Amino acid sequence: MATLKLEIVTPEAKIYSEDVDMVTLPGVEGEMGIYPMHIPLMTEIASGEVCARKAGQDHYLAVGSGFVEITGERVAILTDMAIKADDIDEAKAEEARKRAEARLAEKLGDDEHATVQAALLHSMAQLKVKRRNRV
Q1: Distance, first Cα to last Cα, the chain
Q2: Which domains does the chain possess?
Q3: What pLDDT band is residue 135 in, cutting at 50, 70 and 90?
Q4: DSSP per position, 57-122
Q5: Which of 64, 74, 84, 134 has the fewest Cβ atoms surrounding its Cβ within 10 A?
Q6: Coil, strand or helix at 13
Q7: Do residues 124 and 95 lie in contact, with contact meaning Cβ atoms separated by under 8 Å?
Q8: Which residues, in sequence order, are CB contacts of 115 under 8 Å at separation 6+?
Q9: CB under 8 Å, gap of 24 or more: what pairs does 35-42 form?
Q10: Is residue 4 exposed (0-12), middle (13-18) or buried (19+ Cβ within 10 Å)?
Q11: Nearest partner of 46 among 60, 65, 29, judged by Cα
Q12: Where is 26: in which H helix or E strand?
């Protein structure tokens, strides 16, 4: 069966590099599913979750905004944040969400508002991924 090479890179490090069967990612226009032999595409991604399906198992990562380049053999994501589900500290993410929501209630300049909004989206993506498998 054909596979895709999924690579997720942040400014700090390469977070993920594996051969996978399918990738689901948060496009700015909605969720996108990518299989091997996908038509070449370059687009923007939104903060959210990436799902990498490998050998019948789904692996989740929280990602921030960024860009993705898709070819028939490769999915390369460049993002400002990427964290594997097992590495997410739920308590810290929840605290970050609360802090960001409180800051957004204040009167902020445009630049500061955008920064705080991005922090809120990052924490919400982490919480979504971490809480995904709860009963």
Answers
A1: 33
A2: 4-85 (2.60.15.10), 87-130 (1.20.5)
A3: very low
A4: EEEEEEE-SEEEEE-SSEEEEEES-EEEGGG--HHHHHHHHHHHHHHHTS---HHHHHHHHHHHHH
A5: 134
A6: coil
A7: no
A8: none
A9: 35/4, 36/2, 36/3, 36/4, 36/72, 36/73, 37/2, 37/72, 38/4, 38/70, 38/71, 38/72, 39/70, 39/72, 40/70, 40/71, 40/72, 41/68, 41/69, 41/70, 42/67, 42/68, 42/69, 42/70
A10: buried
A11: 65
A12: strand 22-27
Instruction: Identify whether the C-beta of residue 98 lies closer than 8 Å to the C-beta of residue 92.
Output: no
The predicted-structure confidence for 89-126, as pLDDT tens digits, reads as follows: 889 998 998 988 888 888 878 888 888 888 888 888 98
How far apart are the C-alpha atoms of 84 and 34, rounded to whole Å? 19
Structure tokens at 98: 């609360």
Find out whether 16 and 86 touch, Cβ atoms under 8 Å. Answer: no
pLDDT tens sequence across 20-36: 999 999 999 999 999 99
